[in-house]
Each structure stands twice: as C-alpha cells, then as structure tokens.
C-alpha cells in the first residue's frame, strides 16, 4: 500500500501570545545536574511532570509561511517536508524528491532552487538539507546517491562534495564544522551501534543502542552547542544523552505514547501510532520535543481505501484529520517536563535557534510550511524541582 507522504513520515517508526502569563526577567538559576554528569550506561529516569504548574508558558510566534509565493516554490506532496534548515541569513532550505532544494527568504518569499536532478556535482536524487555548520555552509545529504554536498549560503554555489559512509536515516550537526552525528543502519542481523560521529568522510566512533536497545530502531537526533548528542526513539518517549565520543550520559522516559502499530494497512484495529517527530536543544539546556498525537475521533475522520478491506486513509488526504501536534519542553538538568503546547497542525521539524516547522493543509488541498519561534516563559513565582 502506497501512503501519502505525510503518513509515510509518521510510519517511519514502524518506524502565539500568552494571556495572563507572568514572565520572569531574571536569568535561570543554577541547578545541579541530575543526570547529565557522570556517564550512566543504563539508567533511565522518569520525567518529573510539572506541566500543571505552568499551563500557558509555551508560545509560538509566527515568522513565515513557505509555499504561498505565486512566483514559485509551492510545497509539493512529493517533497520531504521535514527536511528544512535555516541558514545564517535566515533563509529556509527545503528538500524534495524532484532533485532540487528550494530556498525561501526570511519572510517566506521564494528565492530560488539549488541543484538539479542527476548524479553529477551539485545534482541530487533526493536532497535532504541537514544542518548549517559553523562556517555557515549548508550541508545537503543525498542518501540515495551516498553523497554530501556543501553549499555557500550566500552564493548558493557548491563548495565541497563528500562520500557518505552509508545510508543515513537521521543527522544532526556538531560544533566542529566538519562533524555530524548520523544514524546509519547496519544489516538486519546487526542493529547495534547505529549512531555514528562522522568527520569529513570518516566514521570517528560508533555507539548505541541504549539501555533498552532504543537506538536500534529509527530515532530522532539533536546536538547541543557543547557537543552533547540526544537521541529519541520515534515510537516511545525515551530520550538518551551521549557525549561526542559516544559515551552514554543518561536517559529519561516521558509520558507514554499511544499505539502498538503492526506494519501493514492502517485499520480501526491497527491505528497510526503516536510518534516523536523532532528534537531540538537550546543554550538554556531546554530540550524541545515534537510529538504527533492521534485524534480521539480519527476513525470518523477517515475514508475507506478502495480495494483493501478495512484499510483507512485520512479524509481529503489531510493527515491533520488523524493527528495533531504537541510540543513539550524539558528542563534537562532536573529532568522536568515543564510544559506542553497543543496545536491543530503537525510539527514536522524543530530547528536550532528555537524555530518550529508545522505542516498545514489549506481548504483546497494546498500545502504550506508555517515557521514559528518557540519560547518558554517561566512564571516568576515558579520554583524548579
């Protein structure tokens, strides 16, 4: 069964203003590290759930909408809508299956396309913008061609090309301009140590899975400015931290996600699972977690798939009829879940610098990507655990 792209993004697991919020102007107080200190090869802490203390502390301020410029750059159904990065000038680079990267300005205006379909220099089979390095270069991965292309973000010219060490599922840039962490799956028989730190074309170290084998399935990745690496199982709320050498620092578990999906058709008895769709870490040691939550009435918002008994598809091919978006923020030093924000629209990517990318379907089926600034405002009276 061939699913629409938004559903395939989720199936990889089987695979605003605040009203009445008091903002604390003082800097975040120092707190002892509870789990990110000494290496911990197996420990998993249960998150302290403090969301009731701060129900309105997460905010999204709209910055841009991609895909509305009549000059070009419409978001296509065939695109990899979760492959988005923002360069140092504030331009957004979006990947896709057409063999090109589409670049939008800070306000969402279409700027240009980069690359072309093909196998030569600067050409792509399926480009996936991964991250911006310390030199401002845009790293565009092309797993199908096993190639990494680096682009100057000001001239849009390719400045370097490297071979990838293997097929990559996820990547995150490290502070070293030439290094990144990637999930590179092994054979079906060998699932251990799928996380790898790569510098240039060389694998420096391999590590994972964690305490329960979580990294053997597909994970989401994020890296801090200090080089700490965070991996999260897509199908379970389990986040683990590693140093840049692959030493496990600890882990924590959050609220349970719904769904024991069995690979195959989606039916009323085999619903789409809830998943972690992205991670981001900010300089304040706050970890942002994007989650696709299944609607309670998702069956009523479905249509039968012709020729497949019991199989369902989202009404009007709008994945928003099945899932909504949730954004969690976690205080890492104390392993505390500070707050959650729910949205009608799915979060498909969280970007460094505190930006969220949401997938929005219009009334006529048009697709846009909405970029917002994420912010956590701590009430003045609150006391962290």
Task: Give an overview in words.
The protein has 1 helix and 30 strands. By secondary structure, the protein is an all-beta fold. It has a single domain, classed as TolB, C-terminal domain (Neuraminidase, 6 Propeller), CATH 2.120.10.30. The strands form 8 sheets. Strands 1-21-20-19-18 form a 5-stranded mixed sheet, with no helix packed on it. A 5-stranded mixed sheet has the order 2-27-26-23-22, with no helix packed on it. A hairpin with a 4-residue loop joins β22 and β23. The longest helix has 7 residues. The relative contact order is 0.18.
Short description:
The protein has 385 residues and is an all-beta fold. It has one helix at 5-11; strands at residues 45-46, 48-49, 58-66, 84-86, 92-94, 101-104, 110-114, 116-117, 123-124, 128-132, 137-142, 147-152, 158-163, 170-173, 179-183, 195-199, 202-207, 219-223, 229-233, 238-242, 248-253, 275-281, 286-294, 302-304, 312-314, 323-331, 336-343, 346-351, 355-361, 367-376.
């Amino acid at each position: 069964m061939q699913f629409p792209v938004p559903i395939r993004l989720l199936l990889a697991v089987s695979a605003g203003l605040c009203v009445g919020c008091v903002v604390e102007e003082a800097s975040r107080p120092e707190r002892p590290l509870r789990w990110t200190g000494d290496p911990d090869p197996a420990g998993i802490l249960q998150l302290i759930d403090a969301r009731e203390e701060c129900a309105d502390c997460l905010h999204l301020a709209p910055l841009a909408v991609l895909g509305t410029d009549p000059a070009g750059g419409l978001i296509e159904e065939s695109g990899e809508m979760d492959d988005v990065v923002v360069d140092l000038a504030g331009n957004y680079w979006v990947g896709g299956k057409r063999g090109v990267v589409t670049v939008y300005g800070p306000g969402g205006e279409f700027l240009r396309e980069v690359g072309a379909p093909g196998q030569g220099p600067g050409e792509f089979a399926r480009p996936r913008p991964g991250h911006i390095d310390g030199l401002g270069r845009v790293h565009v991965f092309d797993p199908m061609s096993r190639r990494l292309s680096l682009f100057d973000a000001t001239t849009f010219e390719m400045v370097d090309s490297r071979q990838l060490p293997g097929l990559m599922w996820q990547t995150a840039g490290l502070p070293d301009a030439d290094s990144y962490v990637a999930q590179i799956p092994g054979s079906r028989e060998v699932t251990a140590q799928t996380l790898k730190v790569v510098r240039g074309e060389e694998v420096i170290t391999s590590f994972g899975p964690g305490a329960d084998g979580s990294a053997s399935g597909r994970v989401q990745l994020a890296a801090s400015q200090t080089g700490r690496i965070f991996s999260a199982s897509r199908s379970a709320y389990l986040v683990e931290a590693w140093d840049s050498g692959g030493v496990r620092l600890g882990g924590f578990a959050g609220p349970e996600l719904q769904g024991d999906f069995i690979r195959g058709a989606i039916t009323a008895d085999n619903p789409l699972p809830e998943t972690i769709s992205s991670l981001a870490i900010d300089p304040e040691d706050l970890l942002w977690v994007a989650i696709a939550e299944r609607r309670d009435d998702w069956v009523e918002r479905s249509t039968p798939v012709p020729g497949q008994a019991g199989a369902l598809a989202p009404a009007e091919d709008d994945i928003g009829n099945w899932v909504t978006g949730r954004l969690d923020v976690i205080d890492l030093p104390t392993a505390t879940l500070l707050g959650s924000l729910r949205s009608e629209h799915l979060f498909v990517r969280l970007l460094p610098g505190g930006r969220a990318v949401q997938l929005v379907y219009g009334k006529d089926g048009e697709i846009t990507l909405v970029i917002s600034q994420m912010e956590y405002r701590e009430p003045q009276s609150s006391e962290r655990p």
